[in-house]
Every structure is written in structure tokens, then in C-alpha cells.
Amino acid sequence: MTTDTQHADTWAASPAGGRAGFTALAALTAAALVGALYMVFLYAPREREMGEVQRIFYFHVASAWLAMVAFAVVFAGSILYLWRGRLRHDRWAAAAAEIGVLFTTIVLVTGPLWARPVWNTWWTWDPRLTSSLVLWLMYLVYLVLRGSLPESPRMRQFSAVYAVVAFADIPIVFFSIRWWRSMHPVVVSSQGMNLEPEMVHTLVAACVAFTLLFALLFRLRLGVERARLEAQRLRRILLERE
Amino acid sequence: MSILRLAAWVAWKDLRLELRTRQNFLTTLLFAFIIIVVFNFAFDPGSRAARESAPAILWVAFLFAGILSLANAFAMEREEGCMLGLLLAPVPRGVIFLGKFLANLAFQTAVETLILPIFVVFFNVRFAGGFLPFLLVVLLVNVGFVAVGTLFSAMTMGLRLREVLLPILLFPVIVPVVIAGVKATALLFQAPAAPGWIHWVKLLAGFDLIFVVVCYAVFRFVVEEAA
User: Fold this and answer.
1) pTM above the 0.90 mark?
2) What pLDDT is recorded for position B52?
């Protein structure tokens, strides 16, 4: 762990992956998002029973998908950090956790918006809703834990340990909550949504666009971290000169 | 010496300390007792609502009391550099985890053993599904809860926000344990006991297995920097 500062310096100083690559990614993401918006509102047919509100579904599912990707990245980054002790992997986990919490929040907000007219209730303790809520809580706590410690190898190790424990917990949370609800009569069954081909296309497009968005946000967030570390390094150099 | 024997030594150190002072034990016991008393006021005594909520109240009392004592499990090692001494012991880090885990487990079980009769009297519950299955559920919940709790307790011991952070870290992760404990208990308290409780026992066993192993494996990362 003594080389931690050096890791930080080399990571911050390494080239940020090229300006052109970033611009291309940003342009591609923008195009994909516009395309997805077009498909969601104009290409996909109007759902017969639910009406326009059903269009939330595309972004809702795409956000849920993205949150899953993000939490997998948090786990991978944390394991790698515990194994190799490289600062970079810790930052992957931190960046992905923030994005994951953001998109789980979107899932939890768009869900009730859709459920109110369709299920006639904002919230129901349906297995999937409850699991998303618990997941959201765990990763929110991960960020709280990071924030409550000063930047140090200790903070990075603690948060990596918590991320590993939380990830190992996910399958058990899903199972327990599913059983918890299935013991009760299910008031609202999950929607028997028969998707039209156009709807499937739209859903795929939304997921692709959101995945690109994830890549973009991830890079931006890592860029911020790099800049922060570089500023720290420069300040250290200045203090040494005095 | 085998790992378990070494762990037993670490556990014995903690338990002997507790037996001599009894400070932590008595306050935890009192806390659990007060929770049960306070919850009695929330319901009409003897009403259906009170009967139906009994398993939930029991577990709230057990787990909240457990969190309180877990917060102290490592805090006492902070005094006089005890943690450093413990880490200097020529044993793998996992042994320290197992020792602490065993001590906390014994502590938690002892508190529950004394609280349970009071709970039975206050809430007038019957163990329709048999006492042994109930005991099994309690033990399995304890193992999972204390394993994760011991790890997080070691993590939060040096932090300023220790008292708040520990429950915040712990409760989302033990959601499956809470659900399984409450559900299995409710099924066992029902007049004709429902057979579904065995599913929850299996879930608890799975949780315990996974988390004892995971916590044992990652414990060294938590104490490496803490001393």
C-alpha cells in the first residue's frame, strides 16, 4: 500500500484515452439517444389498453438494465482493487456506483409513474419493486460509506469490501423477496405484456442508447477523478518547493 | 493448533472480559426488554394485530439489540492499543474474525435466551410448530446476522459516525435474514403450523454459508489498515 500515491500519480498522468475518441463517443451517444426517443414516441405503436403511458416502459427497462451493468462494474472494480491494489479499479467502482444509483433512482421514479394509471396505485410491494428498492439502498449506502471516510487506502478497501458483500447478497435478496411475496395472494400480477415487434425494436434501441450513455458518463466521471488527483499532485509539488 | 481452537481462544478472551464486567450484556438485555415493552403499547393487548405482529416485534428486538452490542464488539479493542496486540498474534487474520464471530454469536444467543421467556409471557405466543424448529431458525438467523455484523463492526470501529454507520451498512444487507426470520417464525407460531418454514430455513442456511465464507475471506482487508 505504500505505492498507493505513486499509483494515483501514474493513473492521473496517463493519457485520458484521446480527445477524438471521446468526441466520437459523445456524438454516437447523442445520435443513439435521439434515435431512441424517435422510436419510443413515433415508431413504437400506441399500447391498446394502457395508452401513451406505456411508453415509459422503454426507458424504465433500459434504466434497469443499465443499473445492472453498473453494479456489475462496481463488483468487478472492487474485486480487482482488493486483488491488485490499483487506484484505477477503485475509481471504476466509485464511478459506476454513482451512475448505478442514478439509474436505479430513475427506475424507481418511472415505475410508480407508470403504475399509478395502470395498476391504480403508486407503489406495491411487488418482488421486482422491492428488490430494486433494496438494491438502491445498498449502493446508496456504499456511496455514504465512501463519503464518510477521508480519501485513503482504508476508505478504498472498506468500500471494496462492502461492494463485494453487497454483490454476494443480490441473488439472496431476490430469492427471499420473491418468496416473501409469493406466500401472499398476489393482488397485482406482473403485466402480461405481449410485445409487438416494433415494441421489441424500440426496447432494444433504448437499451443500446442507454448503454452508450453509461459509457459516456463513466468516462466523464473518471475524467473528473483524474483531474482531482492531478490537482492534488500539483499541490503536493508546490508545497514541497516552498 | 487448529484454526477453530485458535479462534476459540480469541472468543474466550472476549467472553471472559464480558463475564467480568457484564456491562455490555446488561445494557443490551435491558434495551431488548424495553423494545418489547414499548411495542406492547403500539397494539391493543390481546388483539389480532398484536398476535400477528408478534414475530416481527420479536425480531426487531433481537436484531436492534444485536446491532447495539456489535457496535461495541470492536470498539473495546480500540482502547490501549488492544487491536494492535490482537493483530500481532501469530495467527491468520481469519482466525481473529472467527474468534470475534464466535464471541458475538454466544453473546447474541445469550441475550435472546433471556429475552424469549419475557416475550412469550407478554405476547402469549404458542410454539405450534414445535420449539426445536423455532430454535433452529433463531440459530441460523444469528449466524448470518452476526457474521456480517462482525465484519462491519470491525470496519466501523474507528469511524466518527460508528453508531449510525453500522446499522446503515448492516440492515440493507441482512434484508433476506430479516424476511426469512420473521416469516419462518410467523409460520411456526400459527395454530396449525404451516410446513412452509422449511424453505426459509434452507434460505437462511444458504445465506449463512455464503456470508461466513465471504466475511472470513475479506476480513483481512478490513483490519489491515485499521490498527
Assistant:
1) no
2) 81
